[in-house]
Amino acid sequence: MTSNSPSEKRLEELREQAWKEGVVPGKGVDVAGGPIPRKPGYYGQPVVRPPVWTWEIPLYFFFGGMAGMSAVIASGAVIFHHVDLARMAMWIASIAGAILSPVLLIMDLGRPHLFLNMLRVFKHRSAMSMGAWILSAFGACAVPGLITLELHAHQIFSGTLDQLLRFAAGIFIFGAAIFGTLLATYTGVLIGVTAIPAWFLHRTLLPIHFGTAGLGSAAALLELLGHRIPALNFIGFYAASVESALLIWLSIDKHGVADRAIHEHGSGWLIRIGEILTGPLALVLRFLGLVPFAAVSFLIGALVSRIGWIAVGKVSGSDPEAVFAAERY
Amino acid sequence: MIGEGLQSTNQRRHSFVQDHVEVGFFTDPSVCIGCKACEVACKEWNQVPDDGFIWSGNSYDNTGHLGASTWRHVMFLEQDRAKGNQIAGPMSLDQDPFRWIFLSDVCKHCEDAGCLEACPTGSIVRTEVGSVLVQNDVCNGCGYCVVSCPFGVIDRRPEPLPDAGGAFKCTFCYDRQKSGLVPACAKVCPTESIVFGRLDDLRARASERVQQLQKSGYTDAQLYDPTETSVRGIHAFFLILGEPEAYGLPPKPQIPTIYLKSAWTAAFATAIASIIATLVAFAFFS
After folding, report:
1. How far is A118 from chain B (nearest CA, A)?
2. pLDDT tens-digit profile of B58-80?
3. Which residue range(s) make up the domain with A170?
4. What would the 3-class secondary structure string for chain A be?
5. Contact between chains at B285 and A234 (C-beta distance less than 8 A)
6. Domain membership of residue B263 as a residue range
7. Does residue A208 belong to any structural domain of this protein?
8. In chain B, what residues touch A191 (CB-CB under 8 Å)?
9. Confidence band, pLDDT 50/70/90 cuts, at residue B128
10. A–B: how many Cβ contacts below 8 A?
11. What ipTM was predicted for this assembly?
């Protein structure tokens, strides 16, 4: 090949451009800064690994949070004699917590047939292990709680047996409520205790957000299913207020490059949209008395923000500069 | 060590597993020639499937990074700095300096390992020699170790590769070590840039080597062994020229479990607040 052939000339041009600008963009010629790489870290390669989790996990966060906090509402309803509300809440807890959640979790496993290995060990220092046990305990309380409550509500048995069922229902529902609060909040711990900068920098916010979003979605779904009572409206107000406060917290507690995945990119928009729908918008709609709209807004927001947090993990985990910057905190 | 021949710790048989001796890798880029024999030996011995055939355009590195099917990775750094007392450029020392550095990256086998703590199945264990091992038949592929490794080493192997779905990383050739053999990468390293041996011996040898290099003009030679952070040191440590960031190594890696306390505190507070809010709602608003 002679030195003035077109391809040789093009090569010369690329070399020139590389020296001048440091980078030659374009397919096949992205030689990362021409002679000297200018990308952060090692050729811009991720330093930590982004999560491998797919769509099942944000859906599980959504349904798990809703199921767990439904059981809390159910026990409140049982104490204050709203039997129909308690039944509906326990149905949600059982379907979302004992069926949907395990199915979603198992689907996300790389080897679903080995899901029982989750219960091989009990490791309190692994949020994933704790989560598996919490979910199992929750299912073991919610389903019998629902069955005993239904048997009692339909007066299938009478006399002492019915009293016994009532007592058992109470125990199971309170058990489900205790494990339910953990089921709704541990997911925040799960992603907060990782090496992903945007996650671990917000490890205190995440459990508060996930738990409160769970409580709000449980109340919102119950309202949409016809239980328009002031108590649920109060819970809706509470959840939307907390979420509004978290929105403010998130906009003040910025860590620059380290958590830019929350404030930039598509992932940042998902977080923002989710927080506005669960926070200020739901709050305003409730003040205006538009309860069903507030409920829908909260439910969509709770789902979008869960999708957003997983997306944030993927963006932040692929960002070497974020990892280096996060080490200052 | 070079010159020790068959008596080098890279070549001679050992009984570290039986004797419960902590072992390690010391990887020294100043003698690495970038031949990638370690990558090849690792793949062959451990029967690791291919990790994609792509041209990265990043110097001679078409491997990219460590992953489920890449347990050794030779990095090729191009930096506009002089290497030691190297005379760079046609005219003088200052003009147009350039250096090429090769470093074979591997799982660090942390003293306090994030993946091991995170694993919910007990699939990841600590071996007799202090290495961190994934038991492939136990792993159910939950993916939590992937986000818990501060070095981004371990990963879940995607379909349609063999054994897909499980998490994989360097095994420190545990099978070889049990039989008294040296890990495959160290065995083949032609310049002994990868040195295998007792951890305490290697640590001493590494600091000696850093001093030696600094004396001969490599002023930016340093040891990468984060003993000061919550990882409490690594079993596969590196000598690096320049700052760790350029090698994609976090300067201060932390084991994620240090965040457990604050996260669980927030979780319990939220749990209690939710119960109180619900009770208040039913007590005062019905």
Report:
1. 5
2. 888 999 999 999 999 999 998 88
3. 50-193
4. CCCCCHHHHHHHHHHHHHHHHCCCCCCCCCCCCCCCCCCCCCCCCCCCCCCCCCCHHHHHHHHHHHHHHHHHHHHHHHHCCCHHHHHHHHHHHHHHHHHHHHHHHHHHCCCHHHHHHHHCCCCCCCHHHHHHHHHHHHHHHHHHHHHHHHHHHCCCCCHHHHHHHHHHHHHHHHHHHHHHHHHHHHHHHHHHCCCCHHHHCCCCHHHHHHHHHHHHHHHHHHHHCCCCCHHHHHHHHHHHHHHHHHHHHHHHCCCHHHHHHHHCHHHHHHHHHHHHHHHHHHHHHHHCCCHHHHHHHHHHHHHHHHHHHHHHHHHHHCCHHHHHHHCCC
5. yes
6. 259-286
7. yes
8. 147
9. very high
10. 267
11. 0.92
